[in-house]
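Q: Could you predict the 3D structure of Peptide ABC transporter permease?
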Amino acid sequence: MTIPDIIVPSAGRSRARAKARTYAVLRFLVVIVTTYLGLLSVTFFIGRVIPVDPVLAILGDRAPAHVVERTRELMGFNEPLYYQFYIYLKDALTGNFGTSVLTTNPVLDDIRRVFPATMELATLGTLIGSLIGVPLGVLAAVRRGSIADQFVRVIGLIGYSVPIFWLGLLALVLFYAKLRWVAYPGRIDIVYEYTFTPVTGFYLFDSLWQGQWDVFKDAFRHIILPAGLLGYFSLAYISRMTRSFMLNELQQEYIVAARAKGLSETRIIWGHALRNAAVPLVTVIALSYAGLLEGSVLTETVFSWPGLGLYITNSLQNADMNAVLGGTIVIGSVFIAINLLSDLLYRTLDPRTRAR
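A: Sure. Here are the predicted structure tokens for Peptide ABC transporter permease:
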């Protein structure tokens, strides 16, 4: 065999791999663009079909007819629907969601102000759900059919079945009104409202960074109950999926081989089975985190948590559609980003998916 006979197949394989990577990147970009266009289309048409006139929401019902007509013209509502969608699309891609009727601030500025509160709450809730849910799921899988397994499954069933606002009210009555273990609803005591200056918007991190332990303690007493509630609902999902993944792994042949070699059960479960189950678990935890970011509206309302969910709720009650649609687009964008990131992590951690 000559040297050219070796080089040609190698070069052909390199070109095939490069072509496959290019195709994967293009497909990834098409998915992002298509999904985001779908999100913007849905929010646009929702804003047009709801029985709320955005012009009257700004000017009021008693505004003169000529002022209403002039404002409608300036806002582009007299243009054809396709042109309105073009303007809406252009503004959304540049971060221009209009001005909030409720706060008179640009919607994007309001979102920058309230979103860290939602993100801090969802992050702590996901940490609680993951740190407790994964071990519970492993325990349920290892002791399948036992009392421990039934207990974990009941915990998950309650987490799926009980409305979060009802459980939140019960938690407030018990842990705040009766036991006084946690602080009242809100994010921080009014004493620290004007003495504490957050930098990142994450009160726990900022108070630790600045060495203000009294602020950290107060912020923790405010966040622990709503975060624990979200963590419980996250735990229900994560523990169920962990149990399912572990049951599948424990039936694989490499587990039988590991036991035949005399490896300890602890090493087999935590070092081999859970390690392989961790690959799909990354996606589960990421989607759970995204779900808490978008689904904490009721929790923020019950606990008066000044996050994006409460902001959207108050805006909806006051017919502030710019704020509602802007918040919806931001939450949808975050969900899309986390979903795509989890897919990339899955492909990175599992080499078998790279060839697909």
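Q: Anything worth pointing out?
A: Residues 3-49 form the longest helix (47 residues).
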